[in-house]
Design brief:
Elements (H helix, E strand, L loop, with lengths): L2 E6 L6 H9 L17 E7 L2 E7 L12 H15 L2 E7 L6 H11 L5 E6 L4 H6 L10 E4 L8 H11 L13 E7 L5 H9 L17 E7 L2 E7 L12 H15 L3 E7 L6 H12 L3 E7 L10 H12 L7 E4 L11 H12 L5 H14 L12 E8 L4 E6 L7 H15 L7 E6 L10 E8 L2 E8 L7
Parallel strand pairs: 1-3, 1-4, 4-5, 5-6, 7-9, 7-10, 10-11, 11-12, 14-15
Antiparallel strand pairs: 2-3, 8-9, 13-14, 16-17
């Protein structure tokens, strides 16, 4: 397991800017207002051949009263400190030593872990002198940096890697199912992550929009690893006013792009709304495996037909992806949550399914014989050959005589045959129809071979040997 380095401190001292600088990403939201980062945010970092996981946290507040967002953020930062191997405390030289800095430093002195004090916003010699007062915090290591300009970050990384525990070289994880959890605000996405993890890993609040960053959580069940990505709720574009929330939605969309399976969480009380349809449409455009999660099922009055009727409604409202799996659960009560991960695993397997060329062409021949496509003015669609181009999702290239003879109803029939034969539920299927090229043979014989590279077709021509006329 990679070592974990947590970046902590009070709000608005530049923790997220430093996180982005050290990871060479823009994963953490940076905004000139306190309290922007709320949940723990993870990213991989590397320095001098050493790899570790860097964790950005929300600002630690002194106010411990009430069930406020600030209290949640403080608890999240404390959880990050608990799981970290090395802790980086960030302070602001422009503000100087504050009571909050002293309180946080006092907490960190009590933990039996390496703590590095990073004095941020040090951009000149005068600030270097001002940074000396932070030795009063009683921490053993002090590094001056400017996260915004990158000054001193190399020295900080040296200090971090020197403090890392000696661990086995980390091998890249294989077989991890990347799962993005998306939906409207307050649909229960974070509650679902916590129910799956078994602890309060992300903040849960009745206030819509609590989650702002895309949060990666790695879990393992029955030998299978899952990377759960909790995302910010996607509002209608007209309602996205704050700049921070716009960034959050962008990160949610990027989380969908790198996922294999997408869990669309809808509110059972509200049903499938137009915004749910828009969100589902985006995931479909990205070609992802899809599971519709009907959350808050405990709030619905039920009889023996309620689930079937609700399923029919969901199918009607999401007719463009009627192949998606549907699961009813309650993240709050954890009812039926245990049924979710096995379905995620099956959908991921379907998403990566590969079919041999022989099986593929045999299925198409049988499908063609059972239900021939309609003819047009005496001409009928002919299928010459098929091969699978890629998986994730399964994509097939089929060579035919004329695209104008292809009717959408027959293409849908062929898709259904594929799903019935190979159990491809939960994943989209893509067909690329290609017209077999006609070759004019004159002075020499030309052989044309189609080669699939990254979804593109390349034509390679090889000239046959000339027959000797002698």
């Amino acid at each position: 397991m990679k070592a974990i380095v947590a970046i902590v401190g009070r709000p608005n001292v530049g923790k997220s800017t430093l996180f982005n600088r050290l990871t060479e990403t823009r994963q953490a939201i940076v905004e000139d207002q306190p309290g922007v980062t709320r949940d723990r945010l993870y990213a991989e970092a590397e320095w001098n051949g050493q790899n570790f996981t860097l964790v950005d946290t929300g600002g630690i507040q002194l106010d411990k009263s009430g069930d406020t967002i600030d209290a949640h953020v403080t608890r999240q930062a404390e959880l990050a400190i608990k799981e970290a191997d090395v802790i980086v405390l960030v302070v602001d030289v422009a503000v100087g030593v504050t009571v909050a800095d002293q309180e946080v430093a006092a907490r960190l002195r009590r933990v039996n872990k390496p703590v590095i004090l990073a004095v941020n916003k040090v951009e000149n010699l005068k600030r270097e002198e001002e940074a000396l007062e932070f030795w009063s915090l009683g921490l053993p290591s002090l590094i001056t940096v400017s996260a915004a300009h990158g000054m001193g970050t190399g020295d900080l990384l040296d200090e971090i890697t020197n403090a890392l525990p000696q661990t086995e070289p980390f091998a890249e994880m294989e077989g991890v199912i990347r799962t993005a959890i998306i939906g409207r605000p307050n649909a229960g996405k974070s509650s679902l992550v916590n129910a799956l993890v078994g602890e309060e890993r992300v903040i849960v609040s009745d206030v819509a929009g609590t989650t702002r960053d895309a949060i990666d959580v790695l879990i393992e069940r029955d030998g299978q690893k899952y990377l759960l990505v909790d995302t910010a709720g996607m509002r209608k574009r007209a309602k996205v006013d704050e700049a921070v929330e716009r960034y959050s939605v962008m990160r949610a969309l990027r989380a969908v792009e790198r996922a294999q399976v997408v869990l669309l969480v809808i509110d059972a009380v509200d049903g499938v709304t137009e915004q749910d349809q828009r969100i589902a449409g985006y995931a479909l455009e990205q070609g992802k495996g899809m599971i519709v999660i009907v959350n808050k099922w405990d709030l619905i009055e039920k009889d023996d037909r309620t689930m079937d009727q609700f399923t029919l409604t969901v199918r009607e409202r999401t007719a463009f992806m009627d192949w998606a799996e549907i699961i009813f659960l309650s993240a709050k009560t954890k009812s039926r949550v245990q049924k979710l991960l096995p379905v995620v695993k099956q959908v991921a397997e379907n998403f990566q399914r590969r079919i041999t060329t022989g099986e593929l062409n045999s299925l198409i021949r049988d499908s063609y014989a059972i239900n021939q496509p309609p003819s047009d003015k005496g001409r009928r669609l002919k299928i010459f050959y098929a091969t699978q181009a890629t998986d994730s999702p399964p994509t097939f290239i089929i060579f035919i005589n004329d695209k104008e003879l292809l009717h959408f109803s027959w293409e849908r029939y062929l898709e259904n045959r594929f799903r019935e034969t190979y159990n491809l539920e939960g994943t989209p299927i893509r067909f690329w129809w290609r017209v077999r090229p006609k070759i004019d043979i004159r002075d020499r014989t030309v052989r044309v071979r189609k080669v699939l590279l990254s979804g593109k077709t390349r034509v390679i021509r090889k000239a046959a040997r000339k027959k000797s006329t002698e």
